[in-house]
Amino acid sequence: MSTQSSIAMSACFETENPVCGVILSCQGSQSRPVAPAEDMAQDGVTNTGQMIVVSTVEGWLSFKSLLQHCSGDKNLQFSGLMGPEAEAEEREQEFELNVLQQEERREREMEELTAKHAEERKKEASERMQYGKKKENSKEAMISHRAMLQPKNPTDDENTKTTSVILLGLSGSGKSSALNLILEIAGNQYFVNESTLGNSLPTLSCERKEVFKSGRKLILVDTPELWDEDGVENLDLVKDCLSLSLPGPHVFLVVLQVGRFTHGECEMLVQLQKMFGRELTEYAIVLFVSFDDSQQRPQRIDDYVEEAHVTLQDLIRKCGSRFYELNVTKSQSALSFPQVKDLLLGINKLVASHGGQAYSGRRFSMQELRERRKHIEEMKEGALENDSLLRDS
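-> structure tokens emitted (393 positions)
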């Protein structure tokens, strides 16, 4: 079989309606006469005996397929004249087909391009998020480093011998129990009073306690929860704890209960930074309070942190990875002294890193805080006088 066949065509038109040419002969790989089938007459293909007349475009397409089939060559090439209108209509059909194919190709290309752009935008968003997180971490590290290198202004002798600590946390976290334990051990009362262990009554107002340790005054300020369940801060309590901590605060103890880390604890650092500013973390130490009264040896706090929720680990990281533990139960009281000792060493180390300079929040003026402290002391003296009068009566 030859690789290419051809159909010789000549022009022969009907006189009344010259719509297409007439096939006279077929020369292909199989030389035999070709005539249309009877059922093609409805498409406008007729045999007059001397010639085959194709009177419609549909008929021409049908007859062309017949010729290809009879010749056995699907690549059969046609030459000659078809007639002006039929040729134009076929060219129009081919043009429409090409246009349709081009539109389909463009549509596929647009879909692929849209999918590619969406993937690129998703990748860019992820990269921006990672970059923002790295930038925030770098900024926090830079602020902390800059604070450590910044020369500190000398203070008077009384203030340099004073360390002021504010205990912050949710209700029931163990702030009061931890404070009482620190006071007793720091005051060299190594035999811990049983009444100070375990859960204390809820703290309703800010309270200031003092103890002298190694020639230094240690001020501990106990606080209730400083915001309500809707996250609205109690401005008076915030002002009270800052005024009672003067000439500090030098350290914030963020108190968490071992084994409890709810949604409230997750949001706690955000709430505290709203009240005291982002620089709070530079002066913060995380204190884990344990109420475990079992006789078994408690889990090491390092192991607890390593297995903790990622949000808790992030909170500790933002606080400079400074964390300690206090066990406030009677059965584990033997652990209390070394734990308090380690905590006080950590507090002194953090104070020294700031050159003994206290946290300087700009939310309240120093004059405003002094007046607030004076007001609290007057209120306390008045309450004591009333209690004395009631006892005498």
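The chain has a mean pLDDT of 75.
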